[in-house]
């Protein structure tokens, strides 16, 4: 009891804090074991709690390298895949367009990595609304989340230094590539006979330069257009 006779507020449970620290350390070490070496990306993933973005029914699996179900038939991409894409993107200090907000987890990671600005577009109103709520609650309110067709970004959005495509496409729309500023970079996944592969596009002075890498990505398809199901 305090001097006013009210119960004193209890502080953090040391046992829970220790358990959480051990779990986080194991999560980061697991990513390293899967080939993630970028120190900035690992640091961001250590500090942004994936469980806060996962659906309640799957939060006990959030610190595993698993894709998790989301509403609207979508999925929360596995952490190692997100880490691979973010390392290739190198978004620090950049104005970034994210296609496919999903849970908002990658959006938070982009901000934690020090992006100058993040504009995230989602085709499902439910996902966009839920992501906006999570980001605000966790202190990532600087991200702009909009309901739009990410494959055809609104003209008023302007140009971007980096574009992150959270999903697999048969080909990347020219309307999306055209939004890259000079020297900009786009990272996404292209479907192929052996499954999705990492693709990097750089906007050079003489036009876009494309490289499809051999890195396999376990990432779901990205559907153009606004969703009929909200």
From TrEMBL:
One Pfam family recorded for the sequence: PCMT
InterPro entries linked to this entry: PCMT (IPR000682), SAM-dependent_MTases_sf (IPR029063)
Recorded GO MF terms: protein-L-isoaspartate (D-aspartate) O-methyltransferase activity
Gene Ontology CC: cytoplasm
UniProt keyword list: Methyltransferase, Transferase
Presence of keyword Methyltransferase: yes
Domain of life: Bacteria
GO BP term, pick one: methylation
UniProt-listed Gene3D superfamilies: Vaccinia Virus protein VP39
Protein family: Belongs to the methyltransferase superfamily. L-isoaspartyl/D-aspartyl protein methyltransferase family.
PANTHER family reported for this sequence: PROTEIN-L-ISOASPARTATE O-METHYLTRANSFERASE
Protein's recorded name: Protein-L-isoaspartate O-methyltransferase
Annotated source species: Methylobacterium variabile
């Amino acid at each position: 009891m305090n001097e006013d006779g009210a119960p004193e507020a209890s502080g953090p449970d040391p046992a829970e804090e220790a358990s959480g620290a051990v779990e986080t350390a194991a999560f980061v070490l697991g990513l390293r074991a899967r080939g993630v070496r970028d120190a900035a990306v690992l640091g961001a993933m250590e500090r942004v709690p994936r469980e806060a973005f996962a659906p309640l029914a799957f939060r006990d699996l959030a610190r595993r390298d698993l894709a998790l179900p989301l509403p609207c038939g979508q999925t929360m991409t596995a952490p190692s895949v997100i880490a691979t894409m973010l390392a290739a993107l190198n978004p620090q200090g950049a104005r970034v367009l994210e296609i496919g907000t999903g849970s908002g987890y990658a959006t938070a990671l982009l901000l934690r990595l020090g992006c100058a600005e993040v504009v995230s577009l989602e085709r499902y109103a439910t996902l966009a609304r839920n992501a906006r709520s999570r980001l605000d609650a966790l202190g990532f309110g600087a991200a702009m989340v909009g309901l739009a067709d990410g494959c055809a970004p609104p003209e008023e959005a302007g140009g971007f230094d980096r574009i992150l495509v959270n999903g697999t496409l048969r080909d990347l729309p020219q309307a999306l590539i055209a939004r890259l500023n000079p020297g900009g970079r786009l990272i996404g996944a292209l479907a192929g006979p052996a499954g999705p592969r990492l693709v990097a596009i750089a906007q050079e002075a003489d036009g876009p330069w494309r490289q499809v890498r051999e890195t396999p990505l376990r990432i779901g398809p990205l559907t153009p257009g606004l969703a009929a199901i909200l």
